[in-house]
Amino acid sequence: MKKSAFTLIELLVVIAIIAILAAILFPVFAQAKEAAKKTTDLSNSKQHSVAILMYSADWDDYFPRQVYKRPGYAVWGWNTPFTWREATMPYNKSGGRIYDDGTNKVMLAEGGIWDTPAKTGARGVYNSNRIVMPAFCYWNGPASAWWCDSSDDGIPNGNPVMPSVPQTALDAPASIVTTWTVGINPDWNASGDFSESAWWWFGGAQWPPVFTGPTSGEQWDADSNVSPNWSMPRYRYSGGLNNAYADGHARYLKKGSFNWCKYVYVKGFTTDYGENWEWIFDPGQPCAAFAR
Fold first, then answer.
1. CA angle in degrees (0–180, nearest 5) for 222-248-56
2. Residue 235 contacts by C-beta under 8 Å, 6 or more apart in sequence?
3. Residue 141: pLDDT band by 50, 70, 90 thresholds?
């Protein structure tokens, strides 16, 4: 009996079919993988939000500060060893790494829910709304200068302290974002310990500022080359980012819809000392449609 075999034409047809199927399926697999990462990141954001609320409940209704300086840790410079992440870490029990600089040991919030799946291994890839959770440094408007309330070693210097916001002072907790993912600082492969929350950055430093859409200040995100892009929102997942909110929920927003007026501003508060931003919500002003 004559042994049958594939002809060259038949083999070429089979190879062509496999190539077509691969071309169809590989993008689907990539999208599924990205969707899984986005879901994990959203879950992380949700846990951040809940931990922040639990912290607030234990500390007289106040949210944690974005950055805390501690005596003896000046060697860490801006990459401060204690932030809102470390403050809320006891409320989620996920992630943590002990560092030893030869003099001090410190537990940093790393790994687990502190590690976004699209950019693993970077410290501080999630950061907080600096209006809700101020840092130790701020812009002093009347003095036209950058001030800090303590030295790098955590010693008070007499400058006013920007307090964090209490839950009861929030005018729209279901809309106000508390945390988002930020870019990576190329100087130390980390995100640092603060994110920009002033309207100037989200409005693109143009007048009148544009807060929504492709020409808005969101062009100044972590994909841009405008410094400090590492402290701006990073749209890592299908052109959008996950956010944690002040009422405990988390949500995904597409780039172009993350409007500063609606999601970042807290009525009566600013990131800067001696500044008042209420005027930007007045009739005819850029945030008038979001007045609350």
1. 100
2. 218, 221, 222, 223, 241, 255
3. confident
